[in-house]
Amino acid sequence: MAKARQNAISPTRAEDYAEWYQQVIKAADMGESSPVRGCMVIKPWGYSFWENIQRSLDERLKASGHANAYFPLFIPKSFLEKEAEHVEGFAKECAVVTHHRLEPGPDGSLVPAGELEEPLIVRPTSETMIGAIYAKWVQSYRDLPILLNQWCNVVRWELRPRLFLRTSEFLWQEGHTAHETSEEARAETRKVLEIYRGFVEDCLALPVVVGVKTAAQRFPGAVETMCIEAMMQDRKALQAGTSHYMGQNFAKASGIVYQSREGREEHAWTTSWGASARLIGAAVMTHADDDGMVMPPRLAPAHAVILPIFRGPDERRAVLDYAEGVAAAVRRLETPWGGKIEVMLDSRDMNAGEKGWEWVKKGVPIRVEAGPRDLEKNAVFVARRDRGPRDKYSQGRDDFIASLPAVLRDIQDGLFARAKAFRDANCRDIDDLGEFKAFFTPARPEKPEIHGGFALSHWCGDPACETRVAEELAATIRCVPLDREKSGPGKCVVCGGGSEGRVPFAKAY
């Protein structure tokens, strides 16, 4: 009787997706919860992944004319109060600083002292702070546009934290631009959205739907919010990046006024946009399997790991020398996307099987074993992380080295194709309300199984229909696709009213 296959991660995706996600992060040694509830520690393997995300996206933003800057962590409460819709959207998530020192209490404890004249908000987002600064910088149309980005942390008090998805403190980039005309600001909003789409699809291998948020889902204070939406393996949607056209709302609140070419005083037109470390969570939920993380090669902390295998000290030196030679040759190679191929040599004195499984769980794209017999044949034993962990093949040393860049390209393209095929298989055109409700209703409400996906249904544009779906089924319109008209007109799945085209409804993170 064949032995049942054992997975490295328990429970599996099918058994308990939420717990599987947590266990993948733990097994890959990417992060863990901190002593402060709602916050996390990002460990070296996870932070290296974030650094590669940051580096690649930063290059794209700079190439498009944006520069990096840094603005204060603390925002006066009065700044948020200037834009009513904005403060209403973030008020319940704000962390507030009211004192500036601690003093010994009567029982030896520390008590807050030195009350501030005005409370300070720990940055939930920086529109109001940056608006106040831009108001000082801008006097003339010649001072525009301003195209700035900052990499920083923000704090939004989170009641239901989840590593790399929703934490009270998280890392992100936020861009803030000011323009002379509405047309320039709108063009900026779309340009950055395309940067996000290209980065997420090309580097993270996440296929996305591009569109505009409905009014109910719009960023507080924005005139229009554009977004990219991806499908995770539990068929829920995840917002992977947003770009907001602010019109003149924040310019008026902050007093960003310039003298126009005609000599008139005008308010600037602004945008803001951002993507966060939840992209790490998106990569986990899109590519990982029941044996652990699967890193997309373009952003992997290491492209390959070499595992020397020897039985005793008499074999150790020769095998290590051979492995080091392979590693040195690989380090001279370039990836298909530019930059050197990163390779690690794991020479730790531990069980070879245990060591190999550790790298399976970390998701390194290529594992290379080298032992005495490989040395004799001038070969290596290779495993690709996009295949089963026991799917290995012997390959001549020189052939392996020569083919490695192409193999990395094949893995990267394959991960995108696999994710897109999964998404497409779980998108369904639905026109009947009963079928629509069944699509989003689990068979086991007490412990919902993986269900649903993207219901591509008609919507009349009435917020009441959108609200009804959200309240009854916990599903939302993820966006109004930019190419919505391609699906053709129809009747709203909720009320039967006229619709210009289909939109994706989904449950979401």
Q: Describe it for me?
A:
This protein is an alpha+beta fold and 509 residues long. The chain has three domains: 17-95 and 122-287, Bira Bifunctional Protein, Domain 2 (BirA Bifunctional Protein, domain 2, 2-Layer Sandwich); 304-423, 3-Layer(aba) Sandwich (Rossmann fold); 427-506, Translation Initiation Factor IF3 (2-Layer Sandwich), CATH 3.30.110.30. Helices cover 34% and strands 27% of the residues. The chain is built from 14 helices and 26 strands. The protein has helices at residues 17-27, 44-63, 77-81, 84-90, 127-137, 182-202, 249-254, 278-287, 313-331, 352-362, 372-377, 397-425, 433-439, 463-473, and strands at residues 31-33, 40-42, 67-68, 74-76, 95-104, 110-122, 146-155, 169-179, 209-212, 224-231, 237-247, 257-259, 265-267, 269-276, 304-308, 343-345, 366-370, 379-384, 392-396, 427-429, 454-458, 476-477, 480-481, 490-491, 498-499, 502-506. Strands 3-7-8-14-11-10-9-23 form an eight-stranded mixed beta sheet, with helices on both faces. It has a five-stranded mixed beta sheet with strand order 16-15-17-18-19, sandwiched between helices. It has a four-stranded mixed beta sheet with strand order 20-21-26-22. β5 and β6 (110-122) form a beta hairpin. α2 (44-63) crosses α6 (182-202). The longest helix is centred in the C-terminal third of the chain and has 29 residues, at 397-425. The radius of gyration is 26 Å and the shape is globular. The model has no long low-confidence stretch (mean pLDDT 96).
CATH superfamily of the largest domain: Bira Bifunctional Protein, Domain 2
Please outline the major beta sheet: 8 strands, mixed
Number of strands: 26
User: Compute the gyration radius: what is it?
Assistant: 26 Å
So what's the oligomer here? single chain
CATH class of the largest domain: Alpha Beta
> What proportion strand?
25-35%
Under CATH, the topology of the largest domain is which? BirA Bifunctional Protein, domain 2
